[in-house]
Amino acid sequence: MSATVLTVSSGKGGVGKTTTTANLAVALASKGQKVVCIDGDIGLRNLDVVLGLENRIVYDLVDVVEGRCRLRQAMIRDKRLPELYLIPAAQTRDKSAVSPSDMVRLCDDLRSDFDWVLIDSPAGIERGFRNALAPADLVVVVTNPEVSAVRDADRIIGLVDAEEKGPARLIINRLNPALVKRGDMLTPEDVLELLAIKLLGIVPEDEFVIMSTNRGQPVAFDGKSRAGTAYQNIARRLRGEEVPFMDLEEKDGFFHRITRLFKNGGDGK
Amino acid sequence: MSGWLDWLVGSKPKSADQAKERLKLVLIHDRIDLTPDALDKMKNELLQVISKYVEIDPGSVRIQMSQEGREQRLVADIPLKVASSRKRAG
Lengths: 269, 90
Prior knowledge:
Chain A is α/β, with parallel strands linked by helices and 269 residues long. Chain A has helices at residues 17-29, 47-51, 61-65, 100-111, 127-133, 147-162, 177-182, 188-195, 207-215, 226-238, 254-266, and strands at 4-9, 35-39, 76-77, 84-87, 116-120, 138-143, 169-175, 198-204.
């Protein structure tokens, strides 16, 4: 087994990086994949609470890096799925406690035991982001269809290219079909044209995300909600399946256009 | 269907269209790390240098950023005044 190290990034905070990381981890693990996720946001950890594992932390990423525990001891196993693990961030330290080469070494140790190592990058473009980027085989950029998030996503995509970790793939999160239809939200086509990268998935705005996060039960656990299905679909695409974009609005032709867009842009470069 | 209605009411451009247009410009300058002001200055200096060697018509010059995927390109279209007419005159 040799894991793919996937880093979830965005530049701007609050676009849904941690939610995306948690849900992709759950979606991949529910398909029988062995998954470990690493919270890269040292000092502001949240992946634990989004996954509902906050009460089980004993050791963290910095403990591993500084040799206070073995790697295995810092891995929290999610009891709901057989092969889902979390390495939490330290809460009382800062990003300088870990270096990019620490992260490369750590991920190399994990590769042989997992299918996926998912890294939740912190917001910003400084040390924490560099740490998350260094071991990445694949970078997924999360954005919202709004000006500040798209602008910051462009910056991240540029930095990923510069580090020769590209091309990054894009997840458009919190798309509101009604606003798009009214002409008051950027369409996925607009965002893709502006950023000029390949689309990995579109996650619609969905109150189930908030409700499930309240419970510490990521929405991807059951694929009945629209967002849950979207995450499941992204997980399938990550595994190389061709999955058309779902019909978020059946009566309208809009999402059929998106489907076509994916089919045209989905293969090759 | 609502197109003529919007027209009747005198509608503003859709906010999403404005977002896209604004982002297009912002991303161009972000990517090359050059402010619109500095870009203008560069264009003017370029024209000064070129006109030291050949005669150009500043009014018909077009220098703009173009994009191909994530690649930015500075495209200049600078029509030159024909030298033969000058020769004939001299």
